[in-house]
């Protein structure tokens, strides 16, 4: 798998990252507060939508149509976008995408570019890749800017600085922002104002901007970016050159399909009936906005995901992060523990498929399968089922001999009545290990007692009561 | 092989063993969600308030006077004005016309911008600009810190599907739902980052 | 013709929590619905599947044993959910379409206890008496994979003498998750701590759920800190009756 700076990793694996994160009381509090807020807001809005389930069904079906016919829609998109003056590029992987973008920037003679928040560019590690070619890329989304200034990593798909609270953000601004007012308070309004002043000149003077896209409309060749702050509009409107990196699964067939996704996305993502700004552009509009428009269509593992009949539904994802906001695991560990661009439940199904399960073998297990993610997913990705399927792939890809032997033994005992009845007679031995015991047992008994074993099994009772009377 | 050919080849190879799972074609998409809504002016106004936008309602016949009054009250004179606005709205102003095209620095010094819209959505409190007469280039409604938008009642639809139906996808479209805002700090929505921090909507009915 | 109903006790109840199985049998008999317990039954294979080991043999075993019955009662939302949602997938992963089809048919007549009582027997008042302060944890698989809704609560509300108190943050997972509890022990423990805090907050003396597995985890935690709160399966409360 090719690089960027992105960390795809089992090293350290999720359980270890999680253990560290769990000891960070500030992080725990920040996450709990933020996820509770967004969860309540989302649930309130969904409650007022009588047709929410119908919208979800339509969203899932539209995306399935795209995945089943992605070749045709890509060609249609390319043709329409090109007809409107966009230049379409194709990138097999992160390195190729980064190199296309860097070359396009170099051709303009610029060394500084501004950026709209985009998961695709995070995934390919575009900013560090550009830095290696001597190009500075400035994140303009408030949260991305907080992360960039703090030399940190994003921990959430929609709210990348969710792990930081207002006091911590104020500190970062005072430390890293050359024009931060010395009397800056931790009032979010004041912090937003500082960000406005800091970036205003950059918006006005930059000649090149980079974006992703939330949707790519096949029939018209249009792209759409959803945002809140207006930094997206600045980037999409003011510079001369606009380069958008778009995953091939971002397609939707028709403009009409927006009537579904623009209802699903803002309610799921930020708990708003509509986010403040959506911008739709199609190639070049003479005299209005960027006059040089590039679109980089990105594979980078997506065609791997497409191969798996069960797993491919992960490509329906519209990056709303509702699954993160309700996930009890994410709420406690935060996003960094997942060690990859896409954290939370969707990350646990997407990352292993994008990079191969052998490179992210712990992620499919980073879930209790509680199913809350599936319940809120606006495009009905059955994340628990995909997780189980991926666990199966992990077990086949890298055998863990001790564990496999344990499961094989249990399986064997369960495949015959005599063996099973005999195995149950061993249960009373548990009496001696209700606390303590060797690993892996101790990983249970470290925090919980084992139950007091019964004198006899259920079946022994049944036989005595029902079969022998 | 070009990247394009290789990616398309990968797609064909990926789908070949298990083609068309789930929805195979656009015609199979169930569209049983609501495509009409009775939401009207009251909902529109309420949603705009929820976003902390200012609103006014005025009879269509008194619109010109209402626009002038709002601008007078705010004491704004150097307003960016896209081509195609009625002269009656701007007669007391010192207008910044977009001809020759205004640059960002000039617009940043403006007191604000007046535009119309092409369609508005009651259910989500959204106004949509498409670059047509009265709306102008996207930069005009972006850089000034104050945006006054004039919506005519006949432009207001109930729900998003009704609005989508009226739009031309290849025009430059901007959906605006309230003033610039962010939820990036502790998921609390606060008003005002880079886009106009004050949005004022006047509805002519 | 009388309905032939089988009990699938689940491996956990069979091995470690026979009282929950016994209560299920006694409750159904009291309601005039005798059950059979096919002795060939062992496990639905969920523990294996959720750990990545797909045991098509266990699916086949379940289908072979329970296919002849009109209905199967399972005193576990989690196992009933696995039977309904995982069995066909496991059969397909083994390339056995015929088994997948049979698994779907058997799954269709497999009911979690509260579903069986309300949807099949048509009662939400089973005539129980249980004069204790109880809080109910709706386990995730019952709630989300199976969608039992408020059926267990409807049954509990009709129990005489019960003091039923709502569990704060009831829709939050307890952190069990099968082998998650050992593979991600730290995260599991953090979730358990929050769940225990909510349980303790209610002042209940009994924590009730429709899954012995989650109760084993929460109960094990409550026992460790000597919280003095016992755990009971839904069947055990519903089977309790006033001494005649």
Structure description:
The complex is a heterotrimer of chains A (469), B (205) and C (244). Chain A is built from 22 helices and ten strands. Chain A has 469 residues and is α/β, with parallel strands linked by helices. In chain A, 49% of the residues lie in helices and 10% in strands. The N and C termini of chain B lie far apart (61 Å). Chain B has six helices and twelve strands. Chain B is 24% helix and 22% strand. In chain B, the strands form three sheets. A six-stranded parallel sheet of chain B has the order 1-12-7-4-2-3, sandwiched between helices. Chain C has 244 residues and is α/β, with parallel strands linked by helices. The chains are: A alpha/beta (469), B alpha/beta (205), C alpha/beta (244). Chains A and B meet through helix 2, helix 3, helix 4, strand 1 and helix 8 of A and helix 1, helix 5, helix 6, strand 9 and strand 10 of B.
Number of helices of chain A: 22
Record field, number of beta strands of chain B? 12
Q: If you compute it from the alpha carbons, what radius of gyration of chain A comes out, rounded to the nearest whole angstrom?
A: 25 Å
What is the helix fraction of residues of chain A, given as a range? Answer: 40-55%
Multimeric state: heterotrimer
- Uncertain segments of chain A of ≥5 residues (pLDDT<50)? 1-5
Taking the sheet with the most strands of chain A, its summary is:
6 strands, parallel
SS-based structural class of chain B?
alpha/beta
Strand/helix succession of chain B: HHEHEHEHEEEEEHEEEE
Protein traits:
heterotrimer, A: 469 residues, alpha/beta, 6-stranded parallel sheet, 4-stranded mixed sheet, 10 strands, 10% strand, globular, B: 205 residues, 6 helices
Question: What is the element layout, followed by pairings?
Answer:
The complex is a heterotrimer of chains A (469), B (205) and C (244).
Chain A lengths: L13 H9 L2 H23 L4 H17 L1 H14 L2 E6 L2 H15 L3 E4 L3 H5 L2 H7 L3 E4 L2 H8 L16 H11 L11 H18 L2 E4 L3 E3 L4 E6 L3 H7 L3 E7 L3 E2 L5 H12 L7 E6 L9 E7 L3 H6 L14 H5 L1 H6 L10 H12 L16 H5 L6 H15 L3 H13 L3 H8 L16 H5 L12 H10 L2
Parallel strand pairs in A: 1-10, 2-3, 2-4, 4-7, 5-8, 7-10
Antiparallel strand pairs in A: 5-6, 6-9
Helix pairs in contact in A: 3-12, 16-18
Chain B lengths: L2 H13 L25 H10 L3 E5 L4 H12 L4 E3 L5 H4 L5 E2 L6 H6 L2 E5 L2 E3 L4 E4 L16 E7 L3 E2 L2 H5 L8 E4 L4 E2 L7 E2 L6 E7 L1
Parallel strand pairs in B: 1-12, 2-3, 2-4, 4-7, 5-8, 7-12
Antiparallel strand pairs in B: 5-6, 6-9, 10-11
Chain C lengths: L4 E3 L3 H5 L2 H13 L15 H5 L5 H11 L4 E4 L2 H9 L1 H7 L3 H12 L1 E3 H8 L12 E4 L3 H6 L5 H7 L5 E3 L14 H4 L1 H17 L4 E4 L2 H13 L5 E4 H6 L5
